[in-house]
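1st attempt posting a full record on here, be nice pls
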Amino acid sequence: MAKIPNAFTAVAVTVAIALGTATGAAADKLKIGFVYPSPIGDVGWAKELDNGRAAIESAFGDKVETVVVENVPEGPDAARIMNQMASTGAGMIMLGSFGYMNDGLKLAQQKPDLTFIHASGYKTLENFGNFQTRNYESAYVAGMAAGFVTQSDTLGIVAAYSIPEVVGIINTFTLGAQRTNPDIGVKVVWLNSWFNPSKAQESARSLIAQEADVIFSLYQDTPSVVTVAEEEGVYVVNTSSDMKAYAPTKLLASMTIDWGPYFTEQVEATLNGSFQGAPYWGGMADGAVGVASLSSDLTKEQVDEINAVVEEISAGELHPMTGPIIDQDGKEQLAGGDVIDDGAMLGINWLVKGVETRIPN
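the predicted structure (as tokens):
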């Protein structure tokens, strides 16, 4: 694997060197480009994407060649990098951020023989698929844990962007917490960034000052919020990776993801010519999401209740967004027994009762 640093003035040269050309000794290899929105750390979103890349290399060996460009802002820089990958021999590109979607689609239309998989988007073409995980399932379970342990009845969320995926996760986290503690209130800070460690830490401290005694680090691609919670002595939940090492006493639960099976399946389809651009939404039933490192401060009875809900969700017997559900304006969004469908979940633009912060206009 070639790893290219974030140096856009040299990116055309370095990506070309890393990928090589479509001829020569490695011409029979499938060259795969990976574009990440943040640096690859030891935990977090980019790390889990890169674990998926590593699973590809493990599965296919010398049939594939991978190159990574990390910490790429959405917009012209990302467009330039993916275009350079396409022009220097890539046969497949993984785009690791919601904001890469439109530029990726444009390139896919221009390069019908190039296959794409795109994180968190909602558009597809014959050669352009998208993928995400049902993190709202693991958020519901983590919310149950938060409801069990809070003393202030106030939960705080440091959230990346107010896109539907994030809004849905906030909703199910809140509903899970209300399942175990009906008095829950939730405050949200919208960071408008996937990667801003200093602002994330500042936001976490602000929420703690507002009496939040459980903090949810929602799509913050560093352990910055997690370490603040450990320092301040409040519980913390995080997304993407198990971050127990960064909060050994105060980590309440880590929401985990596993891209390996999906990534390898899409590479196999590209290699054998059967690739079809389609949406993938992996959940607990697929082993794509889970909850790790539940705090030892939870009682056995509480852990048993959480595990029972995990089993129900995995078996398809429980959907976290099952009515009756009232939004923060008092409107009934789901009647009793009704279950939100996938289309509505993918476009959700309202917050449940109990969330005190509004969605930005």
